[in-house]
Design a protein that fits this description.
17% of the residues lie in helices and 36% in strands. The protein is an alpha+beta fold and 137 residues long. The protein folds into 2 domains: 14-82, Hypothetical PUA domain-like, domain 1 (Ribosomal Protein L25, Chain P, Beta Barrel); 90-136, no CATH class. The chain has a 4-stranded mixed β-sheet, with no helix packed on it. A hairpin with a 3-residue loop joins strand 5 (90-91) and strand 6 (95-99).
């Protein structure tokens, strides 16, 4: 049946798996553009995989590198998992709930004063804000 011997080797000899923490504004469609990878393309090679998670962790994407050069990389989407849909900042009349990068989810006043930070999820920020509003009455 198969006359040619198979070659087997540990996958780390053949390819790399890279992790990219993207900015929240990066959409999955952006990741598929060859120029998106211009600042890291020089380390990528065909066969590599790239895992992408934005700062607020609202999605997980896995890509396969088809080819790369000095300032571009051609990738295809292997997996796109939405971890939670509601990652947009929420603006009320007095308060803003948004993702603050290293400060995670936070609640601010519309004038910019941070009331609480380092909350793991938007839902936790909403719960905190509701309790804060009740305490203020």
């Amino acid at each position: 049946m198969y006359n040619k011997p198979l070659v087997i080797e540990e996958s780390s000899y053949s390819r790399n798996v890279w992790f990219i923490k993207s900015v929240n504004e990066s959409k999955v469609e952006d990741l598929l553009e060859p120029n998106y990878w211009s600042n890291v393309a020089q380390v990528l090679r065909a066969g590599d995989r790239i895992e992408v998670v934005p700062d607020d962790r609202h999605y997980f994407v896995e890509l396969f590198v088809l080819g790369a050069s000095k300032n571009w990389a051609k990738v295809v989407l292997l997996r796109n998992i939405t971890l939670y849909k509601d990652n947009e900042k929420e603006v009320g009349t007095e308060f803003v709930i948004d993702f603050g990068g290293p400060h995670k989810w936070r609640v601010r006043t519309t004038t910019g004063d941070v009331l609480v930070k380092d909350l793991e999820t938007k839902e936790a920020a909403s719960i905190w804000l509701e309790k804060h509003k009740k305490d203020m009455k």
